Amino acid sequence: MANNKSINKLKVNPLTLNSDKTTPHVNEMGANGFTIMELLVVLVILSLATALLVSSLSVIWRSFEKLEQRQLNNAANIGGAWFRRSIEGAIQHHPDIPMFFGDSKRIRLTTVYPIDDSNVGPTKIEWNIRQNTQEAYATELWYTNKRTGLEVLVLNFEQEVWFSYEKTSGQLSLLFNEAHAELPKTVTLNKLSDAQTCVTEWCNTMMVAHPLHAGVAETPPEMAVFGEYEF
Predict the structure, then answer these.
(1) Mapping DSSP to helix (H, G, I), strand (E, B) and coil, where does residue 72 land?
(2) Residue 98's closest CA among 193, 191, 178, 195?
């Protein structure tokens, strides 16, 4: 009987051992894992952050587009001002020697307002319309200083453009090639909006320049009297 009592004292409940061993394992998993509520909160925060980022990027891109458009407008305004200024400064030298020639794609003249060197006096320059090699219908407006050889790409156009001229008589023409010294009343840069209608009609005007001394060159009194004049 004594032996049975000692044995009973040494007996240990197996359930107690199992629960003691498994309880720390369950507590560890609960501490390191996420509940469904926590995951939902994280997903909501991520969705809000993504929405804010997308809206911010759209605002940034719109700002960049406006800045780029403003730069393009400024470039067009500057290029147009250069073109008009150089035409305004067109001069003549001798009443029998023409110094201004123009057709639909090129203008040759002598001006006191070259766009790249305004302190050297009268300068021979050219304006040329060239085809853009990258795009089928795009064109470019180039400036050339005949004295220095400098060439500058001034403007780009998405369509065909051409020059036209108004003589002092009011006649419109695509060619200005007078036998005597004369300057046109206006020089116009036109764009081709529709090739079929532009065959017989004047197209949309893009720029208009007015030489300050338009018309036929004045004949000095000395030439009328003596037949010659030292220019």
Answers:
(1) helix
(2) 178
Digit-by-digit pLDDT tens for the chain (231 residues) are: 444 544 445 454 554 444 444 444 444 444 556 788 878 888 888 888 877 777 666 666 665 556 555 655 555 678 889 999 999 999 887 778 889 999 999 999 999 999 887 667 889 999 999 998 887 778 999 999 998 899 999 999 988 899 999 998 889 999 999 888 889 999 999 987 654 455 444 557 888 999 998 877 665 555 555 555 554
- Delimit the domains of the chain by residue range: 13-218
CA–CA distance, 61 with 57 (Å, rounded to integer): 6
Residue 215 CB neighbour total at 10 angstroms = 15
CA atoms within 13 A on the CB side of 136: 0
Taking a C-beta distance cutoff of 8 angstroms, is the pair 206, 193 a contact?
Answer: no
CA distance 12 to 225: 144
Query: How many secondary structure helices (H) and strands (E) does the chain include?
Result: 4, 11
Which H helix or E strand runs over 36?
helix 36-88
Q: How many CB atoms lie within 10 A of CB 29?
A: 8
Q: In the β-sheet with 172-173, what is the strand arrangement from edge to edge?
A: 172-173, 161-166, 186-191, 204-209
